Amino acid sequence: MAVAESSENSFIVVMRASHVYRGFFMSVPAEWARFHLPNKSHDIELRVNSNVWQAKYHYKGYGGELTSGWKNFVLENFLEEFDVCLFNLISGTNEAIILDVKIFRVVEEVIPPSQVMQETLRGTSKMTSRFVMDSSSEEDE
């Protein structure tokens, strides 16, 4: 789906653990960066619908990566490993780099982590006791 919506002004990244769980950095494809971004580190704006996050594009000579601010973007958008992000360049001048981001989720329903923990804690004993009851009733048969 992301490929169908992509253009020459966009790039696609499948989220990895280093993007969303630890490290919290994301490499921008070098060829795309060389063609679309200035050869220097700078601030970058990431937009999802009407929400905006500031991140830092760290230029490394062969391309670069999103660092500072990327973690906030990941956490506030509940990104998970294997989600796919389509980054579409809206403005690529030396003064303003703006990327619209469309998220294609590996799991359709997004549940904030704090809610998952509460539901898991509440449901664990019930699920365990139900499993124990179910398995013991099978042994009785």
Automatic annotation (TrEMBL):
Signal peptide: none annotated. One of its GO terms (cellular component) is nucleus. Pfam families: B3. Keywords: DNA-binding, Nucleus, Transcription, Transcription regulation. GO terms for molecular function: DNA binding. InterPro entries: B3_DNA-bd (IPR003340), DNA-bd_pseudobarrel_sf (IPR015300), REM16-like (IPR044837). Gene3D superfamilies: DNA-binding pseudobarrel domain (2.40.330.10). It comes from Sesamum radiatum. It is found in: Nucleus. SMART domains: B3. The keyword DNA-binding applies. It comes from the Eukaryota. Residues 11-107 form the TF-B3 domain. The keyword DNA-binding applies. This is TF-B3 domain-containing protein.
